[in-house]
Specification:
Blueprint (H helix, E strand, L loop, with lengths): L3 H8 L3 H14 L4 H8 L3 H10 L4 H40 L1
Length: 98
């Protein structure tokens, strides 16, 4: 049984990277990394609440779990991009100072 996120990734294997890149573009335009992380993330507490609501619907639970995993992948990619940007920015700043 394919989840919604797996089906999306099968159609576009770069979907998580593309979505993370969109959020990264917002970060580069001055949006707060923390605010963007909140927009990307699905808190575990929310997932648990939704899983409980659909406890008797195995297909829906599988979809929710897939969406949760997908959002975590997007978040991890976004965090990696932000971290790299901060490292590069520090390196450029040091070069200018010295």
């Amino acid at each position: 049984m394919a989840t919604a996120s797996k089906a999306m990734e099968e159609l576009d294997p770069l979907a998580p990277q593309r979505e993370a890149a969109m959020f990264y573009g917002l970060f580069l335009r001055g949006h707060s990394a923390d605010a963007l992380r909140r927009d990307i993330d699905v808190p575990r507490k929310l997932l648990d609440k939704m899983m409980l609501r659909h406890r008797n619907e195995s297909r829906m639970k599988a979809r929710l779990q897939g969406i949760y995993q997908y959002r975590k992948r997007v978040l991890a990619i976004f965090d990696e991009l932000v971290t790299k940007e901060r490292i590069v920015s520090r390196a450029h700043h040091r070069e200018r100072v010295h």
